[in-house]
Write a structure and sequence with these properties.
Layout: H1 2-5, E1 29-31, H2 40-52, E2 60-62, E3 65-72, H3 74-81, H4 89-98, H5 106-109, E4 114-115, E5 118-122, E6 128-129, E7 132-138, E8 143-147, E9 157-163, E10 168-174, E11 177-181, E12 183-184, E13 187-188, E14 191-197, H6 200-205
Parallel strand pairs: 1-14, 3-5
Antiparallel strand pairs: 2-3, 3-7, 4-5, 6-7, 7-14, 8-11, 9-10, 12-13
Length: 208
């Protein structure tokens, strides 16, 4: 998540995929004006930017068609659900229930659901800087991961040793790997960062 959001304040590479995080350029960033909280309008703006940037951000291919994926902080999720303005999250979910989507409606399951072709996921690991959530919309190939020779997600070095005259077994597993947000021609390639201030209520409710 530090890589995807360009969280350059995190310098411990144990939390950045063994690579330094590079900041996301202004062309791939949307900031809510002033102290505005996270709303659906910001998702609309991010989708429009994703579709008009050069190069265009390509959606992820899913069983339900092409979709973008967005990761938002729990505090942003809190503000989204409590937004009482017209045509925001609550109105959309109520309209879905009136249309017959009741048992599977995300408002009952705690899931976030989908909006404007964007699948929403809450992640506690979305960075927060000065009460501003660094939410991010991702397209295909937003990040890459590479493995050293003879390693892969399912293939690691593996050593087993017995200790204490065979009464205890020690196991060591390891691999050489690294992760990095994709850069193309020195620019961010497949993400749009959406920065929004958390409301006082969301901050108060948060445990961080």
């Amino acid at each position: 998540m530090n890589q995807l959001t360009g969280n350059s304040t995190q310098t411990d590479t144990r939390y950045t995929g063994n690579n330094t995080c590079s900041a996301i350029d202004a062309a791939h960033t949307i900031s809510a004006s002033g102290s505005s909280n996270f709303t659906l309008d910001l998702i609309d703006a991010a989708v429009t930017k994703a579709r008009t940037l050069s190069p265009v951000i390509r959606p992820v291919q899913t069983s339900a068609g092409e979709k973008y994926v967005m990761f938002i902080s729990p505090e942003a999720h809190y503000d989204l659900r409590r937004d009482t303005n017209t045509l925001q999250w609550g109105d959309i979910q109520k309209a879905a229930m009136q249309g017959g989507n009741i048992s599977d409606n995300p408002i009952f399951t705690g899931a976030l659901g989908e909006y404007n072709g964007v699948i929403l996921h809450e992640s506690f690991r979305v960075p927060i800087n000065s009460n501003i959530g660094e939410n991010v919309v991702c397209g295909a190939q937003a990040a890459t991961m590479a493995f050293g020779r003879d390693n892969s997600p399912s293939r690691m070095s593996w050593v087993e040793e017995l200790f204490d005259y065979g009464n205890q077994l020690g196991v060591s597993a390891g691999c050489i790997a690294g992760m990095k947000r994709t850069i193309y021609n020195s620019q961010t390639f497949s993400v749009v960062k959406v920065r929004a201030t958390h409301s006082a209520a969301a901050i108060a409710a948060s445990g961080r």
